[in-house]
Specification:
Blueprint (H helix, E strand, L loop, with lengths): L11 H6 L1 E6 L6 H6 L3 E6 L4 E5 L5 H19 L13 H6 E2 L2 E2 L8 H14 L4 H8 L3 H9 L2 H13 L7
Antiparallel strand pairs: 1-2, 2-3, 4-5
């Protein structure tokens, strides 16, 4: 039995060890301070070239945190990790967040990207069949669909794959 661990769920130090980070200047609101200081942050996961960017704040540290969150979210959506529903089990994070078939989490919470990655990996491993993925994850079909809807790009990705398999889109 192997617990499912996606790069979106790695601790910050482990993830950043595989990343390159750069600062840059960006134009836009913020006046002269923004144009003189490199507050924009771009973090790239080197093995996959997936990246996260942030430049909307005047603080480089705030932009770094936002860029890291966006990197995790992009990893969750773009990178699939093998999962065997017969031998693997949902992560402890998933089990703590999913109680009595209900999944409670905000799309802005730090755990959201790792849970999204796990949900997508389960859906892909179960051949895009929501009932099988929901059963493996320990939630209801409607809870899984509602969770995927919280990130429209993820839902769109699932619907493209479902259409390719002749299945109806999720709504």
């Amino acid at each position: 039995m192997v617990d499912h661990v996606h790069p979106a769920a790695w601790d910050t130090a482990r993830l950043l060890a595989e990343c390159e980070s750069r600062r840059q200047r960006r134009s836009g609101p913020g006046g002269q301070h923004r144009n003189k200081v490199e507050t924009a942050v771009v973090i790239t996961h080197v093995p996959t070239t997936i990246r996260g960017e942030a430049s909307e704040r005047r603080s480089q540290e705030e932009n770094r945190k936002t860029a890291l969150f966006r990197l995790r979210l992009n990893l969750a959506q773009q990178l699939r990790c093998p999962l065997d529903p017969e031998t693997d089990h949902p992560s402890e994070t998933w089990r703590l967040r999913c109680r009595d078939g209900k999944l409670e989490i905000s799309p802005t919470h730090d755990d959201f990207p790792s849970l999204l990655a796990e949900a997508l990996d389960a859906v892909f491993a179960c051949g895009m069949e929501i009932p099988k993925a929901a059963q493996w994850l320990g939630c209801t079909n409607s809870q899984l669909i509602r969770f995927l809807k919280r990130e429209p790009r993820a839902l769109a990705q699932v619907n493209v794959r479902r259409r390719d398999r002749g299945l109806h889109p999720l709504r």
